[in-house]
Amino acid sequence: GTAAAAIAALDVIRANPDYCRRPVEKARAFTRALNLPDPESPIVPLILGDAELTLAASALLEAEGYLVTGIRPPTVPAGTARLRFTFTAEHDDADISRLADLVRERIIPRKAAE
Fold it and tell me: Can you list the alpha helix ranges (DSSP code H) found in the chain?
């Protein structure tokens, strides 16, 4: 079962070479919309610093339909709590744009107010 699934996944990747590039391209669209550095992977951290702010931001995004994990101490050092955005090839460009707008309008201002 697992081996067959892995082989099938490799066949999909072989048949669709851009499928591997697309997650990083999706992450890059998100970071560029927020004037953040270009990502090296499909995982984009956004350091908010405060653990409570990070949890509130994660909850706000979840209420809007986005699953964005809040990472806080002791997993990361105190003062470096962050949101972890993970992009896949299947994420819709309009959804990524809306997510960037939510972060710009509702999360970054809270961080600035700290």
Answer: 2-15, 18-33, 51-63, 93-102, 108-113
In sequence order, what are the beta bridge partners of 86? 43
pLDDT tens per residue across span 55-103: 999 999 999 999 999 999 999 999 999 999 999 989 999 999 999 999 9
Residue 103 neighbours by CB distance under 10 Å = 23
* Top-level class of domain 21-113: alpha beta
Cis omega (within 30 of 0) on the bond before 39? Answer: no
Which sequence spans correspond to the domains of the chain?
21-113
pTM above 0.85, yes or no: no
